[in-house]
Amino acid sequence: MFSIQQFKNCESPSVSNNYELKEILNTIKYGNDRLPLIQSARTYDKSSVEYRKIKDSKLPTFRFNFKFNSYASNKNIISSSGLIYIDVDNINDIPNSDFIYAKWKSLSTKGFGVIVKVDNLNLYNFSNTYNEIGKQLNVIPDPNARKATQQTVLSYDPNLYFNPNSTTYTASTTFDSHEVKKVPSAHILKKERRGMLGDGTFSEYNNTALRFNNISDYFIDNDGDYVVFEDKINICEPYLPLLIQEGKRNGTMFYHLTQHKMLNPHIDYKTLKSLSESINKRMVPRLPNNEVNTIINNVLKGYENDSLKLILNKERKFLFNPKSKLTFKEIMGIVNKENGRLRIDKTKLSIYDVIESWDYKANKKITQGKVANLSGISERTVKRYWSDFKEYVAELNREYKAKDQQ
Predict the structure, then answer these.
(1) Three-class secondary structure of residue 192 per DSSP
(2) Exposure b/e, 388-399, CB count within 10 A at least 16 = b
């Protein structure tokens, strides 16, 4: 029913094969010859070199949103696949919804991939549709996955959810190809009005506000003052050294202009030129004008070919809304409070894990002292949170006692 294109790995944009969606879902649910690699990746931290190596080069990927001619890029889109892929990070489960066609745990097991059937999807209404479906599912989708060419790495989830009778979402045609051709920046301007302006890290070039990080992406559909993550996330916030010596100048210039273009799709050659002049002031010696012009043209060409990547170079646990009026003291109060809450949650999780995996044959009845000993948490701390587990433990102990007396 749905034909999906497969790619060799994250680093290859060329189409390598076509599969029926059900074949792919069955592979995710039951595994194939790549399952050992997936299991191996899950033994590493997702930020480790070992994990990235497996994810980026050893596992195939799928692009669920569109079909492409030869290789994946915006200009090579042939048609919608009839589906949209929603990526959700740092969540234990996705709330039930009639719109969910399929969902499964990601490679890292820290998030979920979700597929929704969709009508009228095209390149120009994709971003808006991605956000709107996120609202329908009551989740915050990963803003970095909000692109037509988004790929997802083969995963494994024996508990994959599938609902062939799910409701089809009808995408708005507000931003159709005819409208966008007449007003190329219409979609981007709408996104800017919803939260891309007003960040204290922005500067002005030719009266156009520029972003220097992607924090505002997390507040497009969120008016709160901040968001906090149990596991740190990576954001894009390019760092420019005070001095760049020969040998690193061209690479540094290309990197920074690439990131500026990815963070600010609306900027043109003239704005990139202005930015390059500021960057070039830190070059020793400065790059010649003709080399800078070549780099700018390569950046613009790369953007058109969809070959540029947003580099997520900085770890953050807290993100504060650029529009927030919080004082430094208020921000530090929030950080301290949330860090304390996260520590409590992790402690409770450790206690729960010990209780849930209790070996009655070896340890007999569950007690606070035994839990403290097995978890490595002080008995005083276990007692502090015991009220959260008291009834559950009592029930487990009753069941154990009843079986022991049989």
Answers:
(1) helix
(2) ebeeebeebbee
Sorted by sequence, the CB contacts under 8 Å of residue 232 that are 6+ apart come out as 315, 316, 317
In this predicted model, what pLDDT tens digit does every residue of 82-131 receive, in sequence order? 999 999 998 889 999 999 999 999 999 999 999 999 998 988 788 889 98
**Cβ–Cβ < 8 Å for 326, 334:** yes
Q: Is 27 exposed, middle or buried (0-12, 13-18, 19+ CB in 10 A)?
A: buried
Q: How far apart are CA 279 and CA 50, in angstroms?
A: 34
- Per residue, the 3-state secondary structure of 130-166, as one string, reads HHHHHHHHCCCCCHHHCCCCCCEECCCCCCCEECCCC
Write the secondary structure of 174-211 as one string of H (helix), E (strand) and C (coil). CCCHHHHHHCCCHHHHHHHHHHHCCCCCCEEECCEEEC
CB 123 within 8 A of CB 77: yes
Q: Which long-range contacts (CB under 8 A, 24 or more apart) does 180-184 make?
A: 180/124
Provide the β-strand partners of residue 67: 79
Q: What is the pTM of this model?
A: 0.51
User: What tens digit of pLDDT does each residue of 213-243 get?
Assistant: 988 888 876 678 888 876 778 889 988 888 9
Distance, CA of 190 to CA of 220 (rounded, Å)? 11
Per-residue pLDDT, 187: 30
Could you tell me if 359 and 371 are in contact, meaning their C-beta atoms sit under 8 angstroms apart? no
- How far apart are alpha carbons 273 and 101 in whole angstroms? 46
pLDDT at residue 279, as a whole number = 93
Contact (Cβ atoms closer than 8 angstroms) between residue 307 and residue 254: no
Q: Chain-centre distance of CA 70, in angstroms?
A: 26
Specify whether the CB–CB gap between 153 and 61 falls below 8 A.
yes
Looking at every residue in the chain, the average pLDDT score rounds to 84
How many angstroms separate the CA atoms of 83 and 280, rounded? 44
Q: Are 6 and 71 in contact, with CB atoms under 8 Å apart?
A: no
pLDDT digits (tens, 9 = 90+) for 11-39: 888 999 999 999 999 999 999 999 999 99
- Rounded Cα distance, 382 and 373, in Å: 10
Look up tokens 């969540």; give the residue. Answer: 91
Residue 405's pLDDT band, with cuts at 50, 70 and 90, is low
pLDDT of residue 186: 28
Q: What are the residues facing 71 on neighbouring strands?
A: 14
Cis peptide before 288 (omega within 30 of 0): no
Rounded to whole angstroms, the Cα distance separating 120 from 172 reads: 7
